């Protein structure tokens, strides 16, 4: 059996609950493929602030850098909302993404037949939705120059800056075009080119790269995209967009699927891949054992596929999740009378049994 190193970062709130469920499934699926996983459990976010004073301790970063992949739950919560901005829990995630060079965030949104009835949207609108959001992850307004507070003419202000360079846009659009080749072949590039200079550069570069790649590309303004996502999610194949727009649109797309607890993500680029659900630490339900672990479990499947090159076990995990949902087992976020309500842990066990 060959061995792979996984850095696991439970984080805060529901993070430890959902990563515990996902870890068991990841271990089992990998073992079936002849891979033995060696875990390093690391602190990040609020838990790290409490233990060490900083959100991303050096030994966590070192463990992530030397791992084959990183699995993360979520960070943040009201307890740390008043800490200094440069040590906020969220800085851990931003720091990991930047330090590992993870410029591409893949957020697939699929609506299986079993779940179509659970979206707040009509089943005929959502059934068959299969979107891949490719979000730029290490640039844009998240990482531009910023100022927390300055006073000019007696008025306090704060600012952030959106910057995109040609190489940054080119590499993410190229990745989206390549991803589209294994799918329905269509890329929608989402921007705000009618207002923002950075979006005008984005649009120009996206067109040039799509032409080089021979990919069918259309452009859409982000405000229209927000509307089209709920009007006709099935019309999208691959969406490529900047850091902030991708963050917002992916939470919106989660509603198409029925719950934010379902959606996984893979952050890839230069260093080891980072895998995390798209949701946060959900302080409102933390500690109750009711969080949906599926987003984290499907993130573990993406880890198997992208970082461990283990396609068969990745697909097996995805099929096991589908089967358990099709049998009517639901965590509280997706529960309706007539179905079987299960806890986070029970959902994990059911998926293991299915595997
Ligand atoms: P959130 O995603 O944590 O929660 C939004 C809503 O979705 C809540 O009602 C929550 O209960 C629900 N929800 C989220 N995940 C769920 C799951 N797995 N199962 C069932 N319900 C779920 O977003 P928020 O409330 O805006 O943020 C809370 C904290 O999380 C903040 O500190 C924020 O910065 C942080 N955050 C972290 C990440 C991350 O670690 N990747 C992502 C987003 C937000
Ligand atoms: C996400 C989160 C993060 C982001 C935060 C916690 C930094 O919302 O992964 O979607 O904005 O990227
Ligand atoms: Mn987000």
UniProtKB/TrEMBL annotation:
The entry's keywords: Amino-acid biosynthesis, Branched-chain amino acid biosynthesis, Cytoplasm, Leucine biosynthesis, Magnesium, Manganese, Metal-binding, NAD, Oxidoreductase
Annotated site residue numbers, Important for catalysis: 142, 192
Subcellular localization: Cytoplasm
Main location: cytoplasm
Superkingdom classification of source: Bacteria
Keyword Transcription regulation (UniProt): no
Entry-linked InterPro entries: IsoCit/isopropylmalate_DH_CS, IsoPropMal-DH-like_dom, Isopropylmalate_DH
Reaction catalysis annotation: (2R,3S)-3-isopropylmalate + NAD(+) = 4-methyl-2-oxopentanoate + CO2 + NADH
Enzyme Commission (EC) number: 1.1.1.85
Entry keyword annotation includes Ribosomal protein: no
Annotated pathway: Amino-acid biosynthesis; L-leucine biosynthesis; L-leucine from 3-methyl-2-oxobutanoate: step 3/4
Residues annotated for Mg(2+) binding in this entry: 223, 247, 251
Domain Isopropylmalate dehydrogenase-like: from-to ranges: 5-351
Residues holding substrate: 97, 107, 135, 223
Cofactor dependence: Mn(2+); Mg(2+)
One example GO MF annotation: 3-isopropylmalate dehydrogenase activity
Gene3D superfamilies: Isopropylmalate Dehydrogenase
Cofactor binding note of this UniProt entry: Binds 1 Mg(2+) or Mn(2+) ion per subunit.
Binding site for NAD(+): 77-90, 280-292
Family under the similarity heading: Belongs to the isocitrate and isopropylmalate dehydrogenases family. LeuB type 1 subfamily.
Subunit structure: Homodimer.
Role summary: Catalyzes the oxidation of 3-carboxy-2-hydroxy-4-methylpentanoate (3-isopropylmalate) to 3-carboxy-4-methyl-2-oxopentanoate. The product decarboxylates to 4-methyl-2 oxopentanoate.
Name listed for the protein in its UniProt record: 3-isopropylmalate dehydrogenase
Species of origin: Anaeroselena agilis
């Amino acid at each position: 059996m060959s061995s792979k190193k996984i850095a696991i970062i439970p984080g805060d709130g529901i993070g430890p609950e959902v990563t515990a469920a996902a870890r068991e499934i990841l271990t089992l699926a990998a073992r079936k493929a002849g891979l033995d996983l060696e875990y390093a459990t690391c602190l990040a976010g609020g838990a790290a602030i409490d233990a060490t004073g900083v959100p991303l301790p050096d030994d966590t970063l070192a463990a992530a850098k030397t791992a084959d992949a990183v699995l993360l739950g979520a960070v943040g919560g009201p307890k740390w909302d008043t800490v200094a901005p440069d040590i906020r829990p969220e800085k851990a995630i931003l720091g990991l993404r930047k330090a590992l060079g993870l410029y591409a965030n893949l957020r697939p949104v699929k609506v299986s037949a079993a779940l179509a009835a659970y979206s707040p949207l009509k089943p005929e609108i959502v059934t068959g939705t299969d979107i891949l959001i490719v979000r730029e992850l290490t640039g844009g307004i998240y990482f531009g120059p910023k100022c927390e507070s300055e006073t000019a003419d007696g008025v306090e202000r704060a600012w952030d800056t959106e910057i995109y360079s040609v190489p940054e846009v080119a590499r993410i659009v190229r990745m989206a075009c390549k991803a589209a080749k294994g799918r329905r072949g269509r890329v929608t590039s989402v921007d705000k080119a009618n207002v923002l200079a950075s979006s005008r550069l984005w649009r120009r570069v996206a067109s040039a790269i799509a032409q080089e790649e021979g990919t069918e590309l259309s452009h859409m303004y982000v405000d229209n995209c927000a509307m089209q996502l709920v009007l006709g999610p099935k019309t999208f194949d691959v969406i490529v967009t900047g850091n902030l727009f991708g963050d917002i649109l992916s939470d919106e797309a989660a509603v198409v699927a029925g719950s934010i607890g379902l959606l996984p993500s893979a952050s890839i680029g230069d260093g080891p891949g980072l895998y995390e659900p798209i949701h946060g630490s959900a302080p409102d339900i933390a500690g109750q054992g009711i969080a949906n672990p599926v987003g984290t479990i499907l993130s573990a499947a993406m880890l198997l596929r992208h970082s461990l090159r283990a396609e068969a076990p990745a697909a097996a995990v995805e099929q096991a999740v589908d089967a358990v949902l099709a049998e009517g087992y639901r965590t509280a976020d997706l529960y309706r009378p007539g179905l079987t309500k299960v806890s986070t842990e029970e959902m994990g066990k059911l998926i293991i049994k299915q595997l």
